[in-house]
Amino acid sequence: MYVCAGTVLVGLAAYLVCVKKGKRQELGIYFLILAVSGAFGVLVCLEEKGAQTGTPEEILRPQPGEGDMQKDYLLDVEDLVVQEPYRVVVENRHLTKRELQELFAEALAQLEEVFLGENESLDHISKNVVLTDSVLNGRVSVSWSFGSYREVNLEGELMEEALTPEGTLVAVTATLGYEEAELVHSFSMMVYPPQKSVRDQFFSALAEALDTCNAGTNEVFSLPSTVAGRAVRWQEKRGTAHNSVLLLGLAAIAAVAVGRKRDMRKAKQKREELLLAEYPQMLSQMALLLGAGMTVSCAWERMVQSYENRQTVQKKEALPSPVYEEMRITYHQIRDGVGERRAYEQFGERLNLQVYRKFATLLVQNLRKGTAGLSRLLETEVQEAFAAQESLAKKRGEELETKLLLPMMLMLGLVIVMIMIPAIASFQL
Predict the structure, then answer these.
(1) Angle, alpha carbons 73-74-76 (nearest 5°)
(2) What angle do CA 398, 402, 404 make, to 5 degrees?
(3) Paired sense of beta strands 140-146 and 168-178, if any
(4) Could you tell me the pLDDT band of residue 244, with boundaries at 50, 70 and 90?
(5) C-alpha 199: how far from its chain's center?
(6) Would you tell me which of 59, 63, 95, 242 could form a disulfide with 100, CB atoms 3.0–4.6 Å apart?
(7) What is the radius of gyration, based on Cα positions, of the chain?
(8) What distance in Å separates the CA atoms of residue 14 and residue 336, rounded to the nearest whole number?
(9) Residue 285, exposed/middle/buried by CB under 10 A (0-12, 13-18, 19+)?
(10) SS3 for 268?
(11) 185-237, pLDDT tens digit by residue?
(12) pTM greater than the 0.70 cutoff
């Protein structure tokens, strides 16, 4: 209790300090919540203390079926014990004789309904019965016994082989129990063979016909053509090669899809590598043209025209450049009426690489500032691009060295084998 009270005081004091000094509101709310929690703790302690005082003389017992109740007290005995914990077990109230009779009557009504299962009445039992072990939500236990177990087992299943079409009278005894009280309820039922569907009857007749065929001594086994008055046509079950072909087709489709996805991924990776390799050259050319006094649009047009001229002269020998192809698209967009700013932004979005997005951002930001500041920025970017390209080349060289390590190890192993075989042969001689 003292801890809770101290928490209240500390929380309120901290909250007031936060409010007075203009601290963050969230921090003040945290301290306020702490104070409220401490206050609730104090209230709970007071309630528990009040509940522990006094001497209870009467306890409301649980109702029948609710189970026993346990209550903890602090026991004071004159000149013997002081504040000693003691647990009192209060049993639930027992039923009166009349209440017990009413309980058993209700249990019997539910028991008869559950026992029938899918059957309509005790006079005609042709399906399994339900032997439940309790009724009334477990309040009353039930145990079963039969006068004969040839017709019905303890699982409630009908023994078909022991039943006759005329029916068999079976005595049933159900023993109901509640606490120490018991009630024995006996009744009878007429048990008949289970009613089979037309399909079940046919397959039973088919089994009998096949047994008759197997019982013969002929060398040839003849399948019946008529069973239970119905014509039967037999067809040998073939293999499932068509299913295998279908599975192979699905596997081929999956393999093609995976291969296509892998090829697309490789093509994308190759394109990105070409873009990164061409970036320093393109950037230096742009910086050179801007340094010569051209505007961004004029320099862009000049670079595109130079690329188109090279493609025209070299024709099929020249491979298309992904950077200049995208620049050509941007150039035609500007000629068709798309604003320069939007065209440069789309250029960076299509290439979808950080360096090209940065380049497009520089062009967009410097449209209104002129080419002077842009030239200095591009020169710095050119230096960084060449440095990055050099670092990438070193990294690829290291990767190639690592890939060559395995062939070198294999060659070393081959050399060792060539040396060891003659040496081992000489030792054997």
Answers:
(1) 130
(2) 115
(3) antiparallel
(4) low
(5) 42
(6) 95
(7) 48
(8) 68
(9) middle
(10) helix
(11) 999 999 888 877 778 778 777 888 888 777 766 777 777 888 878 888 888 77
(12) no
Which two three-digit tokens encode residue 169? 């009278």
Closest CA to 187 of 232, 141, 121, 243: 121
- In the structure, what pLDDT confidence band is assigned to residue 51 with cuts at 50, 70 and 90? low
Q: Check residue 121 and report its DSSP letter.
A: B
Quickly count: other Cβ atoms within 10 Å of residue 160's Cβ.
Answer: 10
pLDDT at 173 over 90: yes
Q: Where are the domains of the chain?
A: 2-52, 97-191, 273-405
Residues 362 and 377: beta-carbon distance below 8 Å? yes
Within 193-295, where are the H helices? 198-214, 241-291
| In 181-330, beta strands by DSSP E | 181-191, 226-227, 230-231
The residue type found at 123 is D
H runs (alpha helix) in 22-159: 25-52, 97-116
CA nearest to 131, candidates 107, 155, 104, 148: 155
